[in-house]
Specification:
This is Radical SAM domain protein. The chain has helices at 63-71, 94-111, 131-139, 152-158, 168-180, 199-208, 235-253, 259-270, 329-348, 352-355, 360-367, 376-396; strands at residues 31-34, 80-84, 118-124, 142-147, 185-191, 213-218, 257-258, 285-288, 293-296, 305-306, 310-311, 315-316. By secondary structure, the protein is of the alpha/beta class. The protein is globular.
Length: 402
């Protein structure tokens, strides 16, 4: 593994002259993450968010400045999705979204000159979904993502209420309401050590409950979650066996699309290779917290403080534009380390074409810097899955022995 490159600071590597900045290397904005509240009604033991016990809420007065900042930015150039996330978004009243959407529409009329389509998604633990929320999702054409880790005996080990009760029954009830109202949804399941021996049970749970779109997030060392249960000897082999069995089940039984498998298959079939990802190219993702502070790169970096970089907040919509923060030493320290890490991955890793240099949050929390290469997250999410999919496709085409 290559060693991290030296830290680049404003003293060792000055901020470029504004006229020399190549803004074509930034954006275009594809995803906007907005934190309606920092609070979550659950206390999942693997969560990275530091302030999920605090009932901070985004002021509606920040909606217009946020979207003015977006629509007037030179980094805006395509349709984009707004994801309401980074806390439990249903912990605020339905009226918040009704009023927010009205203000967004007004901002579109005033500032969306291109014009661009704004789509909305919401990532929820599902426990608070009722008919009124379903009506809200329909009214605002929201894409819904629900977090559920499979059957109750796995889910409830980690996703508990603040009084220590399991949340599985409430989440499943919410999913049932989405299905009753014919609201399309996908689920995210966190894979911990507790999941690894139960691929059949997890698959059958999704299959039996009509859940057809699944994304796997590995339990990560990140933010206030200081150690993943996957960070121990022998786990990678068990993880590989889990994913191998899940691949076999999805290809024989069908009905379920797994995000990780679909992504690798797409790369194989199209021949398209990545040079970066949305999470390591500036201003493809823009993140806003409940105070109007903003960052770019990984949403997981917003709201955390680190020894090496401090926090990752670049500015605030009440006083800064996306372009103005490109002149700050903090942005260039983060960006240059991020770019150096991507370059190291490109130089040292045969999986770079399907990875694009990885996510900075994984790199920082595992290695203490953005300017580094391989992580456990990369090995699990990219390398293991790529090997499984490519080997299976080669066998199906008769390109290798069974």
């Amino acid at each position: 593994m290559a060693n991290p490159v030296p830290l680049l600071t404003s003293q060792t590597s000055p901020v470029p002259d504004p006229d020399s900045i190549d803004y074509a290397e930034f954006g275009p904005i594809n995803l906007v993450v907005i934190q309606p509240t920092s609070f979550c009604n659950l206390n999942c033991d693997y969560c990275y968010l530091p302030d999920r016990h605090l009932k901070n809420q985004l002021s509606l007065d920040l909606i217009e400045p946020i979207f003015k900042t977006l629509f007037t930015s030179r980094f805006m150039g395509q349709d984009f999705t707004v994801c309401w996330h980074a806390g439990e978004p249903l912990a605020v009243p339905i009226s918040f979204y009704d009023q927010a959407m009205a203000r967004i529409q007004e901002a579109e009329r005033n500032y969306n000159t291109q014009p661009l389509r704004v789509m909305h998604s919401i990532q929820t633990n599902g426990t608070l979904i009722n008919q009124a929320w379903c009506d809200c999702f329909i009214r605002h054409d929201m894409i819904v993502g629900v977090s559920i880790d499979g059957p109750a005996f796995i889910h409830d080990r980690h996703r508990q209420t603040r009084t220590g009760l399991g949340s599985h029954a409430a989440t499943l009830r919410g999913i049932g309401l989405l299905q009753k109202n014919q609201i399309p949804f996908n689920v995210i399941a966190v894979i911990s050590e507790d999941s690894l021996d139960y691929p059949d049970e997890i698959f059958n749970f999704f299959y039996d409950h009509g859940i057809t779109a699944v994304g796997f997030n590995m339990e990560e060392t990140e933010g206030v979650h200081q150690r993943s249960s996957l960070d121990q000897a022998g786990i990678q082999q068990r993880y590989r066996a889990f994913m191998q069995r899940f691949w076999e089940l999805t290809t024989t039984k069908g009905a379920i699309q797994v995000r990780e498998f679909e992504s690798i298959c797409s790369s194989v079939y199209t021949g398209i290779r990545l040079e970066h990802t949305d999470m390591n190219r500036p201003f493809v993702i823009v993140n806003f917290d409940h105070e109007g502070n903003f960052s770019t790169f990984d949403p997981e970096l917003l709201g955390v403080s680190t020894e090496r970089y401090g926090n990752f907040i670049l500015g605030n919509v009440l006083q800064d534009s996306l372009e103005s923060v490109c002149h700050s030493p903090k942005f260039w320290q983060i960006y240059r380390d991020m770019a150096a890490g991507v370059q190291l991955c490109q130089q040292n890793c045969e999986y770079f074409g399907v990875c694009g240099g990885g996510a900075g949050s994984n790199k920082y929390w595992e290695q203490g810097t953005l300017a580094c290469t391989e992580t456990n997250a990369c090995r699990y999410r990219i390398q293991v899955v790529t090997d499984i999919v490519v080997n299976a496709l080669e066998q199906s085409l008769g390109l290798q022995a069974e």
